[in-house]
């Protein structure tokens, strides 16, 4: 594919824009992602820290927003293993969810992780002889924040929980979490190549608790070791983590309007040209695959990007 006139046009437009336009910095307002434990939600109830921990360890993390998303995401990424995660669903799971998990198990090596102190997941967990009581655990002195000992593989540690409930089970399971008073708060079992794990304190996985990690009570390390175990021996880079978001209600339009943040954007023709060149590079990569055959596009992309950085620097410098 020959795009020489197009490339020359981009260069000319970029040079003219860089020379003639002063550019400006504008303030914009945007609605914050709010209300559900999404990896895009940076508030206390979000899972953005969880996503960062997993990404830094090589995992690919995605979210399922509709009933068809899990199957589509699995087919697109075609991983060696899937870790499917439910975190404190607002609405009870249904037979639809059971079918989704069974479909994924039939086609892929699957690790199912349910993180919930309520009993909303029991229709699914009952398939594996597990259930969550849904009754909050209180210590002998009336505190809803019990101490629990976790052991996952070679890792172990003592942690303060934030509203947990006990887990019941029929048959053989591996207990990975137990309070000092003897309540089971973490279990794991294998079903062939598949792994089912339940942690009955969803707070461990949200920013509220992960931000409280210390050297002696490291929630981040606990999460790392758990997901490492759930790979079942697969490489994290060949493991797809799907966080289910199909059981939550989004915030109301009024709430979105109330909760806004501020950001900044640079208005300059060259910045727009740079975005166009990025898109061109992406299209060429997808269509041709061999980037070495498209070195004019790559050189143009680098050239325009450098010009854009120079313009941005001139606008932002004191």
Low-pLDDT segments, ≥5 res? 284-291
- The arrangement of helices and strands along the chain is HEHEHEHEHEEEEEEEHHEHEHH
C-alpha end-to-end distance: 44 Å
Helix content: 25-40%
State Rg.
Answer: 24 Å
Can you give the mean pLDDT?
83
Strand line-up in the sheet with most strands? 2-12-3-4-11-10-9-6-7
The counted number of beta strands is 13
What assembly state would you assign to the polypeptide chains in this entry?
A: single chain
Structure annotation, total helices: 10
Content-based structural category: alpha/beta
Inertia-based shape:
elongated
The amount of beta strand, in percent, is 25-35%
- How would a crystallographer describe the biggest sheet? 9 strands, mixed
Question: How would you characterize the overall build of this protein?
Answer:
The chain is an alpha/beta fold. The chain contains ten helices and 13 strands. Helix 1 runs antiparallel to helix 9, helix 1 packs parallel to helix 10 and helix 9 runs antiparallel to helix 10. About 3% of the residues have low confidence.
SSE blueprint and pairings:
Blueprint: H1 4-20, E1 24-31, H2 48-56, E2 60-64, H3 69-77, E3 81-87, H4 95-107, E4 109-115, H5 122-125, E5 130-136, E6 147-152, E7 155-160, E8 165-169, E9 174-179, E10 184-191, E11 194-199, H6 207-210, H7 219-230, E12 239-244, H8 253-258, E13 260-267, H9 269-288, H10 295-316
Parallel strand pairs: 2-12, 3-4, 3-12, 4-11
Antiparallel strand pairs: 1-13, 5-8, 6-7, 6-9, 9-10, 10-11
Helix pairs in contact: 1-9, 1-10, 9-10
């Amino acid at each position: 594919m020959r795009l020489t006139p197009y490339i020359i046009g981009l260069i000319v437009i970029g040079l003219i824009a860089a020379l003639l336009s002063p550019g400006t910095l504008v303030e914009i307002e945007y609605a914050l992602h709010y209300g559900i434990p999404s990896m895009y939600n940076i508030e206390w109830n979000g899972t953005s820290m969880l996503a960062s921990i997993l990404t830094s360890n090589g995992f690919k993390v995605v979210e399922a927003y509709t009933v068809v998303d899990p199957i589509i995401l699995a087919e697109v990424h075609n991983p060696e293993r899937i870790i499917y995660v439910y975190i404190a669903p607002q609405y009870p799971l249904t037979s639809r969810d059971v079918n989704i998990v069974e479909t994924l198990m039939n086609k892929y090596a699957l690790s199912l992780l349910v993180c919930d102190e309520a009993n909303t997941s029991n229709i699914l967990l009952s398939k594996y002889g597990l259930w969550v009581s849904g009754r909050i655990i209180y210590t002998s002195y009336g505190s809803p924040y019990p101490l629990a000992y976790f052991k996952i593989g070679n890792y172990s540690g003592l942690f303060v929980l934030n509203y947990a409930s006990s887990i019941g089970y029929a048959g053989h399971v591996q207990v990975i979490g137990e309070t000092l008073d003897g309540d089971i708060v973490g279990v794991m079992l294998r079903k062939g190549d598949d792994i089912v794990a339940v942690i009955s304190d969803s707070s461990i996985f949200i920013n509220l608790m992960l931000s409280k990690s210390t050297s002696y009570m490291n929630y981040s390390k606990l999460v790392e070791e758990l997901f490492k175990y759930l790979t079942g021996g697969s490489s994290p880079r060949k493991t797809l983590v799907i966080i289910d978001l199909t059981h939550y209600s989004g915030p109301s339009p009024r709430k979105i309007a109330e909760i806004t943040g501020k950001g900044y954007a640079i208005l300059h023709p060259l910045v727009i040209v740079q975005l166009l060149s990025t898109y061109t590079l992406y299209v060429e990569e997808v269509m041709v695959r061999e980037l070495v055959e498209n070195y004019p596009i790559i050189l143009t992309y680098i050239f325009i990007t450098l010009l854009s950085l120079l313009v941005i620097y001139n606008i932002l410098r004191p």
